[in-house]
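WARN retry 2 of 3 for item q-0093 after timeout on previous attempt; input resubmitted unchanged.
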Amino acid sequence: MTFLYPDFLWLVVLLALLIGKYASKRMTALHLCVALLVALALSRPILQESKQDAQTKSKDIIIAFDASYSMRATDIPPSRYAFTKETIMALLKLNPSDNIMLIAFTSNPLLLSPPTTDHGLIEVALQSLNPDFILTKGTSLQALFQKIATLQTVPKNLLVITDGGEESNLGTMVSLVQESSTLLTVLAMGTAQGSTVPNKDGSLLKDKEGHLVVSALNPLLGDLASVVSGNYITPSSSPTSTAEEINTALQKNANTQQNIYKKQHAHQELYWIPLLLAALLFLTLHTRALKYLFILLAFFGIQAQASFLDTVHLWLAYQNYHEADYNQTHTQLMRIENHTLESKMALANTYYKLYRYKEAIQTYQSIRSTSITAKKQLYYNLANAYAQLGTYDKAREYYVKTLQLGEDVDARHNLKMVALLEVKKIPKLGKSNLKPQGSDQKSDDKKNDKKAKKSKSSQGAGSGGSKKTSKKKAQAKPIPQNTEKAKSHPLGSKVYELINKGYIHETQPW
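OK item q-0093 returned
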């Protein structure tokens, strides 16, 4: 047996000493025994069991980011490199169970982290890379794609974050991408007009002739993504919203998901035993109806325990939901034995967040309620799910049902959208088209409107990528939770030697 919160054991020891001190005073000693049992329950005693295989859905994603000197440019504030790092960190949180490989590249690609579902390791590798030690000024997409082609993962979900450098041979790039069975997504870090590049001392980078170097976005990136039927994304108003757009693009390749197995510790909770004993002892001291209590426990003890655990699982699910760990949210919700309307709604919303729209629809349809408000929310969520699947006739039907139960601005807006798309037979809606679901949607819409305005202004100075605004979908009301961040450790000199390989021989780095 072990304890999840052993710090409470000090309180147990203190109370045991007090019981010995007041042993002659029966009532005082018994009350201290109650407190001791409660403290023991708070220490969370468990029976540790062997590791077990836990199955989860996962995608293989390769994230390759440009670490060359030009990424110091500030046309994407605070800099292209800083924005890239924050976007990757946000993307890791949105894909907690995916198998992710991290590559940094300049003229040469360097594997920073092999494929892993332990995203803490990826964060350490990302935070440890110091751009001040990267001397290479050029960017070679050809070298990157050649490296990707040697990897065994097929098909490859490849996210390339770069300003494009001076690559000009589109045909070669296309051939390498197609031969490597790569599903390409490009995040174009830069603007068409470009920006000067600051040095470490605050001066601006100049070429050999003494002219200021202006690093601009390479238009080849958009052409490459278009030819290979990939995704082309430009930075949004923040790294978080940009990560959401990338995540939406990656989810288009959901058919590449596979089942993976992870070893997880299993344990049996024992906290309820001292807690039950504390309750019995307290009631023995303060009530004469103890025999009736035992009868009630005999009939409802198991159900009461199950109900309490269901509440705990739902609470933990809300915590995970707030942290965007939707796979763990799903795990907690599936542990609930007796589902309520609230837990079913949370489960359906979680499926929606996981882009498992068919399962979300099945769950929404299984919910029964006589409440007009609940029905209205159900119809609205069903309509959104059908719209995401591109089933616009069904989406239209449920938006109409929503409006039949009462006026709703968001439902009316979305109804117009799906009606228009149904007529034009345009493919599935993106995340930016629909107003989000959930009880907090009005406040979320105001926030999203502000984000959209910022996004439009930033994209206006951009490089000609499609204008997109990303809106969060708020469904279940979350409970805040603290998370630990991975500590950074410096990388060895060999790492920078590899990534700077060929620095002296660069002839046209820009």
